[in-house]
Amino acid sequence: MYANGQGVPQDDIEAVKWHRKAAEQGLADAQNNLGVAYANGQGVPQDFSEAYVWYSLSAANNGPEKATTFRDLNRENLTPDQVAAAQKRAKELFEEIEKKKGSH
Predict the structure, then answer these.
(1) Is residue 1 included in any domain, yes or no?
(2) 17 inside domain
(3) What is the share, in percent, of the chain residues with pLDDT greater than 90?
(4) What sign does the CA torsion over 56, 61, 63, 65 have?
(5) The whole model's pTM is what?
(6) How far apart are alpha carbons 38 and 32 in whole angstroms?
(7) Number of domains the chain contains
(8) Residue 62: HSE in the Cβ half-sphere, 13 Å Cα cutoff
(9) SS3 label, residue 21
(10) What does the buried/exposed string (b/e) look like for 15-51 if buried means 16 or more CB atoms within 10 Å of the residue's CB?
(11) Dihedral angle sign, alpha carbons of residues 10, 16, 21, 26
(12) Which listed residue, of 23, 55, 74, 102, carries a Cα 20 to 30 Å from 87's Cα?
């Protein structure tokens, strides 16, 4: 809604807030949308490492096919050390999200 201004004024910062809430609950589309926000610097500072993390989570959660494509394209903006750190963070975040989902 906020990302496209559907029924509310368009607001990238508010869109990121809601994408993050849904992404942290394991919703793959929201994880992909958060990756897009970080890759493009929409509502958050541009951060290719963080984009890689959220695209990876989306892909791991059977998100849109484009999540894998976006993750792989985004990788070109990162050094090997940044990729390794992003992969580690994605794994930790994935496990944290799965643990939360299992406790409900």
Answers:
(1) no
(2) yes
(3) 76
(4) positive
(5) 0.88
(6) 10
(7) 1
(8) 0
(9) helix
(10) bbebbbeebbebbbebbbbbbbbbbeeebbeebbbbb
(11) positive
(12) 102
Handedness of CA 71, 77, 80, 82 (dihedral sign): negative
The pair of structure tokens assigned to 26 is 């394991």
- Determine phi and psi for 7, rounding to 5 degrees: 80, -10
Domain membership of residue 4 (yes or no) is no
Domain hosting residue 39, numbered range: 12-99
Q: Is residue 6 part of a domain?
A: no
Distance CA 57, CA 30 (A): 10
CA distances from 64 to 9, 60, 68 (A): 26, 10, 8
Assess contact for 53 and 86: CB atoms under 8 A: yes
Q: What's the average model confidence in pLDDT over 72-92?
A: 96
